[in-house]
Design goal:
The protein has about 325 residues and is α+β, with helices and mostly antiparallel strands. The protein is built from 8 helices and 7 strands. It comes from Methylophaga thiooxydans DMS010.
């Protein structure tokens, strides 16, 4: 047996076509006004059913089933496309602007969970494949072009066909699993129509965007503050080292050769490494904290006219905005 609507081959016992949802037995498919969902009962010559006679079955019209599956939003648009597919007997190309601009969100909005998951995973897979070439500076690759063509040309062209197939599958499942017409409509309204989850995702994306903007402002500011604090602390702690150096020189009239002579170890300053140059007494404070990875303050001793030691502070690899007032680049 073949479907009279789309030509699909069916089992002899089938009551409805699983491809287009068309009934295979003769039923009253009169349309209700304004395409509102109705439950239609076939009657013979508008006569009451005589007592003891078995009434003809109650069957939902195709319009009622599609209305339950699609919902009020853009129902006329989708029904026009679905009718064209049914007349032509195949699901050809068309165009869907929401599927072009908001592909993933459109599928979630129309409860097309599996296609949405496949679309999302395909994007991740393409990103993983294209990432090594992007790091090498290869520019736009063949994989990128294939993905862009598929996502922004092929998918919008066949989005209506995909939705048509989904609605027909829902209708066929409702008819097969729920003989009661009211249960069919309830099932289609529950499984079809639209989902509010897309608005939750949009709200989540807005929140994440705002958090990203806030993070882009606050994180660099905090990093600057943290780096400036580490440098200032290292400079303040180095005063103890220079004081011990000065006392040693006043006692011995010579510069120390090792930090141990000052009773100070190389790691005396937290998150820093001290180094003493025995030739000129220069003290280097290399810092390892936050964004600092070996950048240093260089303290060089000089004698004034009174043979008193004073220190000059220079920076090695540190931006001027992080330095104390007593230091310079």
């Amino acid at each position: 047996m073949f479907c009279t609507q789309c030509g699909e081959q069916l089992a002899d016992s089938a009551r409805f076509c699983f491809n287009c949802g068309e009934a295979t037995q003769k039923t009253d498919l009169s349309l209700a006004d304004d395409r509102e969902p109705k439950i239609v009962m076939s009657q013979r010559d508008n006569l009451e059913v005589s007592e003891g006679a078995e009434p003809e079955p109650i069957i939902n019209t195709k319009d009622a089933l599609y209305h339950a599956a699609i919902g009020h939003k853009y129902e006329d648009y989708y029904r026009d496309g679905f009718d064209r597919f049914a007349r032509e007997g195949n699901t050809g190309a068309s165009w869907n602007w929401p599927a072009f601009f908001f592909s993933l969100y459109w599928m979630l909005y129309r409860k097309m969970w599996y296609p949405a998951a496949g679309y999302f995973l395909a994007g991740i897979l393409i990103t993983i494949i294209a990432l090594p070439t992007a790091k090498d500076g290869a520019g736009v690759t063949t994989v990128d072009i294939v993905y862009l063509v598929g996502a922004f040309i092929i998918f919008p062209m066949y989005a209506n066909a995909l939705y048509y197939k989904k609605c027909n599958e829902l209708i066929a499942t409702a008819r097969f699993n729920h003989p009661n017409p009211n249960e069919q409509l309830s099932y289609l309204k529950r499984k079809g129509r639209t989902s509010s989850i897309v608005w939750v995702l949009i709200a989540l994306c807005v929140v994440l965007t705002l958090l990203g903007i806030l993070g882009a402002i606050t994180v660099p500011a905090y990093q600057d503050y943290s780096t400036r604090t580490h440098v200032q602390n290292a400079y303040n702690s180095s005063n103890e080292v220079t004081k011990a150096f000065k006392e040693y020189y006043e006692r011995n009239q010579t510069i120390p050769q090792r930090l141990e002579q000052l009773f100070i170890g190389p790691q005396h300053i937290p998150n820093s490494l001290l180094k003493l140059d025995p030739d000129n007494g220069q003290i280097t404070v290399s810092m390892y904290a936050g964004d600092l990875n070996g950048e240093a303050l260089v303290l060089t001793p000089y004698l004034d006219n009174n043979q008193q030691i004073f220190w000059e502070c220079k920076a090695a690899g540190i931006s001027q905005r992080y330095l104390p007032n007593a230091c310079s680049q």
